[in-house]
Fold each of these.
Amino acid sequence: MRAPALPFDASGLALEDPGPRAATLVARLRLRVLDGRLPAGTRLPTTRALAQALGLSRNTVVRAYEQLLDEGLIASRVGDGSYVAARLPSTAEPAGARGAPASAAPPPDTQVWRQLQAFTPGRTPDGPQRAFRWGSPALDLFPAEVWSRLQARAWRRHEPQSLGYGDPAGLPRLRALLADYLRSARGLHCSADELLITAGAQQAIALAALALLRPGDEAAMEAPGYRAATAALTLAATRVHRVPLDAQGLRPAALAALGPRCRLLYLTPSHQFPTGVSMPLQRRLDLLDWARARQAWILEDDYDSEYRYTGLPLAPMASLDAQRRTLYVGSLSKLLFPGLRLGYLVAPAAWMPTLARLRAVLDRHSACMDQQVLADFIEQGHFLRHLRRMRRAANERRSTLLEAWAQDLTPLGLALPPPDGGLHAFLPLPDARTERALADAAAAAGVEVGPMRQVGGQPDPLGGAGLVLGFAAVPPPQIRDAVRRLAQAWRPCCAADLPCVLRPARSAWRRAEN
Amino acid sequence: MRAPALPFDASGLALEDPGPRAATLVARLRLRVLDGRLPAGTRLPTTRALAQALGLSRNTVVRAYEQLLDEGLIASRVGDGSYVAARLPSTAEPAGARGAPASAAPPPDTQVWRQLQAFTPGRTPDGPQRAFRWGSPALDLFPAEVWSRLQARAWRRHEPQSLGYGDPAGLPRLRALLADYLRSARGLHCSADELLITAGAQQAIALAALALLRPGDEAAMEAPGYRAATAALTLAATRVHRVPLDAQGLRPAALAALGPRCRLLYLTPSHQFPTGVSMPLQRRLDLLDWARARQAWILEDDYDSEYRYTGLPLAPMASLDAQRRTLYVGSLSKLLFPGLRLGYLVAPAAWMPTLARLRAVLDRHSACMDQQVLADFIEQGHFLRHLRRMRRAANERRSTLLEAWAQDLTPLGLALPPPDGGLHAFLPLPDARTERALADAAAAAGVEVGPMRQVGGQPDPLGGAGLVLGFAAVPPPQIRDAVRRLAQAWRPCCAADLPCVLRPARSAWRRAEN
C-alpha cells in the first residue's frame, strides 16, 4: 500500500531500536515541537497515517498523541484532528540533543571544585602489570578460583533479603573477623563494634576528616606524603599543613610549631609513604603527647603493615593510645586486591553509631555480597593462607629486586636502600632535576617508576627527591629484566654530572645487642 | 625436664593461638612493662629459660627480646642479662586492653557530628522479606544463577591488572551501556562521558552537594521528602529548606520565597517520594525557570522511574534543560538489588573529570568486578529481560494490593490511591495521631508499613500524614494475607472517631481526549 502523504517530513522518526516505541516516538515528536521544526498550528497526521508511514501499530501512535496532549504540546480540534498547540508551555527549550555548549551553565565555582583541579587520582595504568608499578600487590597470585567458588556458593545459598540495604557499619560477621585478625596480627585490641567497614582506606580517611574537623580547623600530614590523603583531608580542613620528615619520620618540633587550629594529623608510622621510614616508639609517644596536649586527633594509616622484612612490626599507635585519640585505618587492597574496595576504620565504640551514619549518608554501605564472600574467605582459612603466600612472594620479589639492583645499578653509583616493609622501595635522589631525568629515561625504557613529586606531592624544600619502585606487581624474571633495562636507560645519566652516590640508610631495627 | 623457676609469673604469656609467636610475646611483655606488672629494674629470665617455660623456641624469645630492646623497654647489662629499663620512654601508657572509658577522649564536637545524631539510616530489616516493606524491589526474582554464572566467567577470564585501581568515573564499557539505556528507556540523551558511576543514588546526591555548594549556600527539597537526601545535602549546605507540596509536587511559589542563598534543589519529579505525585510538564518548566533565574542547580532523582502503570513517563527534567543546570541521578537498586551499590550521576561532560576526582577522593571508585559483571549482564540482554520481568511482577503485585485493598480495607473507609508508578503506594491520613495509631497496629499484626514521619521527615505543617506501603517485596499471596491482617488490625481504629474516608487522587495522566 502506498504510504500516505504526510504533512511533514517523517524521516528520522522511524524507530530502529527495540526500545519502548511509544515513548521514543513521543520523545522525537516533542523535540520537534520544542525546537520549532513542527511550528505552532501544524496539523499532525492522523494516527493511522503516521502508524502506517512509520511501520508502527496504530495503538502506539495513539498512546504517543495522548501523551503529547497531556503535556499540552498538541491540541485537538473536534472533528479536525490534532495540531501542534498554538501556545506552548512557557520556556520549554529543546535540550534533547546534547551539546549546546554555548548555553550550558558554567561549572560550579566552589572551593572544593577548585581544589579538585590540583588532584590527580592514582590508578592502575591500562595494560598488563609491569615493573615497577607501585600500589599494586602480587595480583597474579590472587586465588581467583577460590574466591569465585565462594561467591558462587554465597549466591546459591543467599536469602532474598540479604540483597537489600545492609548495616552501614558493615556486615557484623565481617567486622568480628577483621577485629580478630587485627588482634592477632597487629596486636590491636578492638572489638567488632569498634570497627567500621569502609570503601577502602580512602573512604576511612575521608570519613574521619568529615567527622572530626570543624569549619576553620586545619590538618597536618607528612611531606612527602600520600596525596590521596591530602585530597581527602582538604574536603574538610581549611588548610592541610605538610610537615617535614627526618630519619625517624614526621618531625614533632615542626608539628608543634603549627598553631592550635591544627586538629588532625594523618600519619603512616609503620612504613612512611613514600620514603619507607618506620617511626620508632619514642617518636610515636611524642606524637601521642602532642595529640593529648592539643586535644587533637591522629589518623594512623597502617597500609602495607602486613609486609615486613626486618624486625617485628611495632605496635600500632592506636594500641599505645590510652586516651583513644588515635583512629586506625586499614585496607585490604594490598592483601587481596585494590578493586575490591574494602577497608576499615577503628575508633572508640561510642563513636561507631555516628560514624556509621556518616557512612550511610555518603554511600550507605559496602556491597553486601562482597562482604559475605570476604567473611567466608577469612572464616575458612583462605585469608591467612593467602596472606602467607603474599608475604613469601613479596619477600622473594624484594630480594630479587635488591640482588638485581646490586648487580646492575649499584655499580653505577645508585644504591637502593633495602625497604624494611611494604611493597615498594624508595630510591632517594639529590634533587627534582635528577628525579625527572631518571623517571623520563625509565618511562622511555618501558619501566614504570613513581617520581616522588607525582606520588608524594611537594615535600618541604629540604626534602630531596626520589623514585618509588613497587616490587610486588610482577614475578622475579620481569623484575630482573626491568632492572637490566633501567641500568641501560640510566647509564648515560649516571655517567654525566649527576651525583648519584647515596649511602643506604641504616635500619633502626638492626642495632646489635651488646 | 622440670621447668626452671622464673623471676615472675609467666602464666598468661603462653601462646595458645597460632599467630606470629614472637610478635604476640612482644605484645604481652610490652603490656606488662607499660602497665607496671614488670616494674623498672626487674630482671628478665634468660631467653632459654623463658622459651622452655612457655614451650617456645629460643629463637622466638630472642627475637622478642631484641624487639623490646629496640623499643627501649628493656636494657642489657653486660654479663648480667636483661632487665626492664629503669626509665621508660615517656608517657607510654597501656592501651592494649581496651575499655578505659574514663580516660577516653570525648567524641568530636563538630556540626556534622551533631547533625548526624538526627539521621537514622534506612536499612532492610533482618529476617525474610515481608509486606509492605518499602525500598525493596522483587528481590525474590533476581536471576542469581545468571549473575553468578557471569561472575564466574569474569573471574575465569580476568587479567591481574583488572583487579587494580580503576577509573574513578567508572568502567568505560559500563558507562557507555548505561548511557545507551538512558537514551532508549528515558529519552535522556547523554554520552558515556557525561555519566559517572556512583555507589548508588546516595553517593550521587552526596557528590553533587559537596561539589556544587559553597560555604553559606543553602539547599531545598520537598517536604515530605527522602530523608537520606536531606542528610546528604546537610553535609555541604548551611541549611536545607523543606518546601511544601501540592497535587502537582513541589510548589514553585514556596521555592521562590526562599532567599538567593538557595542554590540547589533536590527533586523527585517522576514519582515524588513518598507521596507518589508526578510533576507535570508545566511545573517542571517553572522549576527550570527558577534554576536559571537564580543561577541554581537542580538535582533530579529519577528513582523508580522504570516502573509506571498509567501513561507514559514524562521526559526527565534533565532532557528539557537546555542550560544544563539539572543533574540527573539514577540507581540500579530498584532494578537489580540495593546491596549491589551501583548508581549513576549525569552531568555536563566538561564537569566529569572534576566529579570523577571527587569520587576518587571519597572512595576511589566502585568495585571493579561488580562493574564488569553488570556490564556483561546488560550487554548480553539479561538486563532488559530482567527489567521486563520486574515490571510485570511489580504490576501484578500492585494490582493484587489494590484488589485486596478494595475488598478488605476500602469498606472500612480507607481508600488507597492507586500509584501511577514506582514500587510503593501512599495512604494519605488526616494527621500524625492517625498515622501513629495505624502504624503501631500494623506492626503488632506483623505487617511492615512506613510512617511518613519516619520515612519522609517532617512535612510542612499543612502536609498531613500517611503510610508508605511497598508492594514489590513479596509475591501476591503474602500481599493478600497482609491486607487481611491489616483489615483485622485496623478495624478497631476505623470504628472509632478517626475520619478515615479519603478520596482517591485523580491521576493527571488520564484526562480524556476531547
Note: The mean pLDDT of chain A is 86.
Amino acid sequence: MKVKGKHYRTIWLKEHNPETVQIIDQTKLPHKFQILDLRTVDEMAAAIREMYLRGAGLIGAAAGYGIYLASLSAPGDPEAFEKAMTDAADLLIKTRPTAKNLEWAVNKQLHTIASEHSVEEKRRAALHTAVEIADFDAEACRQIGLHGMKLIEEIAQGKKGEPVNILTHCNAGWLAFVDYGSATAPIYAAHDRGIPIHVWVDETRPRNQGASLTAWELGEHGVPHTLIVDNTGGHLMQHGMVDLVIVGSDRTTVTGDVANKIGTYLKALAAKDNGIPFYAALPSSTFDWGITDGIREIPIEERDPREVKYIHGNLICPLGTPAKNYGFDVTPARLVTGLITERGICQPNRESILKIFPEKR
Amino acid sequence: MKVKGKHYRTIWLKEHNPETVQIIDQTKLPHKFQILDLRTVDEMAAAIREMYLRGAGLIGAAAGYGIYLASLSAPGDPEAFEKAMTDAADLLIKTRPTAKNLEWAVNKQLHTIASEHSVEEKRRAALHTAVEIADFDAEACRQIGLHGMKLIEEIAQGKKGEPVNILTHCNAGWLAFVDYGSATAPIYAAHDRGIPIHVWVDETRPRNQGASLTAWELGEHGVPHTLIVDNTGGHLMQHGMVDLVIVGSDRTTVTGDVANKIGTYLKALAAKDNGIPFYAALPSSTFDWGITDGIREIPIEERDPREVKYIHGNLICPLGTPAKNYGFDVTPARLVTGLITERGICQPNRESILKIFPEKR
C-alpha cells in the first residue's frame, strides 16, 4: 500500500541488488519510516525475533526470504549446503515458536530445495519460492479485499454519499501481511474504488497496535479514520455511528469461532446488540480444521504483565500492583455475521465453510 | 479507608487547626501520597479546578468546605460578608460546570448561612454544614456498602472458601467520595468482614483511573486485586473468572439506565452474555428523576482528543491522527441486574426505584 505516495510491500528484494532483502522497520512506526537491509539469515532471524516485522502473513514471507538468504552464503559442497539449510531452518523456526505460517514457509522452502540437484539450482529455487510465498500472501489478501468490498459497496448504496463507518480492532493491516492486510483489504479496495468510507480505529491496549500501526497505514494511504480508546465502540454503535465491523483472526475453528486480539469479543457483543454486521477477514491459513469449540479448545497466550503496567516506559499503576495480560479472546460463531476469505464470504458454520473449502471435507 | 495502615477520608479539618482543610493530592497518586493544606476558598477552587481532588461525592464535600473557608476570611460587616459568600459560591460553581453535587452543596451552604443572624453564627453554621455534607456522603456510601455486601456474602456461600471475583471499571472508589466509595463500598465491607474476595481492576483508558486510583486504594487497604486492560473482561467472564460486576454511576434514570465511564456498556453486555450479575452502586443523588431514556437523553461529555493520543506525554499514534474522546456511555436497564443505593437494592425500573424513594413519586 502507499507510504508518502509511493507503493510499498512490507518485504521485498532490493532494486539492482537481489542478494539483499528489504523490510520496513515496524519498531520505529508510527514516528519514523525506516527501511532495513537484511543480508544474512542471522539478520532475518533477528528481525523476526525482535519484531522489526510481525504479523502472521509477513512472518511467513520473512522466513521464506530468510532461507533464500541462507542459500546464498551456504558452501558450494552439497553436503555442507544441506547442513546450512537445516541450520537456517532451525534458527528461523525458533524465533517465534507459536507462529504457524513460519513453520509452513520454512518447510515449503526445504521441500523445494531438496527436489533440485545442483547447488546453483537449489539457490534459484529458494529465490523463486521466497517470491512465490510473498506473492501468494499478497494475492490472498487482495482477493479478501475484492470479496469484502462488496459488503461495503452494498452498505454505501443506502447511505446516499455519506461515508460508510467501519470499526476495526488491532492491526490486521498490510503491515501484518505482505500487502493489503486481511481486515483492511476490503477497506483499501473500497477506498481505491472511490467509495466514501471512514474507519474507527481501536487503539488496542496493551500494545496499542491500532494507534501505532493501523492509524499510520490508513493515514499514509489516505483513508479517513479516527482513533478511539477500546472502551468507545459500544457507545458509537448505540448511536448509529458504526455501519460495519471488520476484524482479523489469528485462528478460526471449522465451526466459525474466531480467536483474535483481546477485546474483539466485546465489540462483537455490541455489534450484535445493535444489529450491526460483524465480519472476520482471514486467509484460509488461519483455519484450524481440527477444533470445534473455540472458547474451550483454543489456548490463549498469556504475555508479560509489564505490557499492562508500563506504557512507553511509564508505570501507570502502583509498582507492586499485580497485572494479567491475556493476548487474545474468542468470539463465538453466533456473534459473527460472516467470514471473508480469499475464496469468498461464508457463514460461520461447518457447512458453509466446507462448501468453499471442499478439499477439507 | 486505610493508607499505610492509617484511616483517612479524602477531605477533613486539620487536627488542632480547624481553620485549615486538608485533602489528598490525587494528581500525585499512585506514586506519591501527599496531603495538601487549603486555607482559602481560592485555594479550594483551584484544587477542584486542577483536579487535585475529583469524583462526584468529593467535589460536593469540597465545595461545602470551600464556603466555610470563605466565611472565615469574609469581612465582619453583614453586607460585605454576604457579598463575599456569593462571590465564593460563583467561584466554586464555575470550577467544574457539569458537577451536580457541587451546585447542590454550595446552595445548601448559602441557604443555611442566610438563615442565621450574626456573622459569628453564620461562620459556625458554615462549619457545621460543611462537616454535615461530608458526613452525609460518607454515611450514604457506608450504607451502600452494607447493602451490597450481602450480594457478595451470598456468592461466597457457594464458593467454599474460594475468593469471590468482582470486576469493576474506573474509580468509583473512596477517592471519588469522602469515604468508602460507591462501587468499592461493598468490596471494602466484605473484605473487612473477612469474606475472601479478589477484584479485577479495568485500567480505564483514556485517563486510567482504574490503574492509578482504584488499584492504589485497594492495595493500600489490603484488598487482593489484579490490573487488566479494558479489553480483558469479556475473556475472563467467558472462562468463569468473574462472579460479580459492580460499577458506579454518574447519572441514573428513573427507569434504571446507568450512565457511567465509557466502556461500562461493553462489560454489561459480556456479563449478560455469561449470566453474571451486573450491579451499579450509587448514592441516590445520581438519580435524574426527569429522564426515562438514558441512551437518547443523557448528554455525553466529549473531552480533549489529546487524552487519547498522549499517555504520560508520549504520543502513541501519528501526530496528525484524528481522535475522539467520549467520556461516558449508557448501559440500558435491561443489562443491569440491580441498583445498590443507600436505602437498599432495587431493580432497574421505575416501580422498584420509587418503592424505596417514595418521596419522588
Note: Chain A has a mean pLDDT of 96.
